[in-house]
Specification:
Blueprint lengths: L4 E4 L12 H5 L8 E4 L4 H12 L11 H28 L4 E6 L5 H6 L5 E7 L2 H11 L5 E6 L11 E6 L10 H14 E12 L1 H5 L6 E5 L2 E7 L3 E3 L2 E13 L5 E12 L2 H11 L3 E8 L12 E7 L1
Helix pairs in contact: 6-8
The chain binds S-adenosylmethionine.
Length: 310
């Protein structure tokens, strides 16, 4: 077997590199450089290296909360909000809505919806720092928007809600089919009759195919690199972790590094329908599904948007 050896280097944890995209773009060889065998996936090497650091809590968005909007949140919602807005307009015809946003992150969804829709909303998120950003953002809205720090798999949901949302692959962050089932059941119980659950999911192909390559976002003042760990297959579907690494330019011109590891579960869409059915939803449909071609954002592919009605 021919083995091609390649070398690359990775900045060390917490390194701050003095002003300069050039320093970022051209990594300097150092003791952090790892050799890798082209027969063995690049991502697996990187993952092993990162895993060995063992310092990141899986699905903890606290470290990246400050840069989340800038890196991905704002752009992702800009690419997808019209679709959600359209589904809601068709179903609710502009009526005032009581909303519950599960895994709400920094509150972008409510903030966009409240621009031209009368809503009262509660958002819940595991990351206290994402919630801090959401609360700060809510202050600029006249709508009644509240945010709580909590785990949606453990906390209770309010009653008599018109709309429950789980946006931007947040459902994939719940790491077993049992947790999806319980979350659907709790969402169903919190909804009024005629209310709706709107969510999007990363499909199997996204975890299985797209994530075999690093995904990179480069802006003038930041760089985002996402590398996936090897997938794990079980009876629920595919479980796969990604390491999200961000270099962002600080006011002083130096770059700061922050990172997080998230774990996703993806399952066949038929299974999702069956879980919705078991939870009691009388109707569920895919409102849009994108395959390999990204729509408006690098993450918006191999993704389905679903709407279920109580
Ligand atoms: C990709 S972000 C999406 C955030 C937001 N839904 C949006 O559309 O911008 C995933 C979010 O899920 C949250 N999350 C993950 N697991 C959670 C859990 N068990 N309970 C509550 N929030 C959770 C994370 O803290 C993070 O803010």
């Amino acid at each position: 077997m021919t083995q091609t050896r390649k070398r690359f280097s990775i900045f060390r944890q917490n390194d701050v590199h003095k002003s300069g995209a050039s320093r970022l773009a051209v990594p300097t060889p150092s003791e952090t450089a790892l050799g890798y065998d082209s027969e063995f996936p690049f991502s697996a090497w990187v993952s092993l290296w990162i895993d060995s650091a063992g310092r990141l809590n899986v699905n903890d968005y606290d470290p990246i909360a400050e840069v989340f909007d800038d890196v991905m949140g704002t752009d992702f919602h800009a690419a997808t909000h019209q679709l959600r807005r359209h589904v809601l307009q068709e179903h609710f015809h502009g009526q005032e809505l009581v909303c519950l946003d599960l895994c709400c992150g920094t509150g972008i969804f409510f903030s966009l919806l409240a621009k031209d829709w009368s809503i009262r909303g509660l958002g819940i998120d595991l990351s206290s720092r994402q919630v801090d950003v959401a609360r700060a953002r809510a202050q600029s809205h006249s709508s009644h928007l509240q945010y709580e720090n909590g785990d949606v798999t453990r906390t209770g949901y309010p009653e008599r809600v018109d709309l429950v949302t789980i946006n931007f692959d947040a459902l994939n962050h719940l790491r077993s089919a049992e947790l999806w089932k319980q979350t659907f059941a709790k969402a169903y119980a919190s909804l009024k009759r005629g209310g709706g659950l709107l969510f999007d999911i990363n499909l199997l192909q996204r975890l299985q195919g797209d994530w075999n390559k690093p995904e990179i976002i480069i802006k003038k003042h930041l760089m985002y690199i996402q590398v996936a760990f090897p997938p794990v297959y079980n009876s629920d579907g595919i479980i796969r972790r990604t390491h999200m690494l961000v270099f962002s330019r600080m006011d002083c011109g130096a770059f700061r590094r922050v990172d997080a590891v998230v774990e996703h579960l993806a399952m066949p869409v038929d299974r999702v329908f069956s879980l919705l059915d078991n939870a009691g939803f009388r109707e569920a449909r895919i409102v849009e599904a994108y395959r390999n071609e990204p729509r408006g954002h690098i993450f918006n592919k191999n993704r389905a948007f679903l709407f279920a009605i109580k």
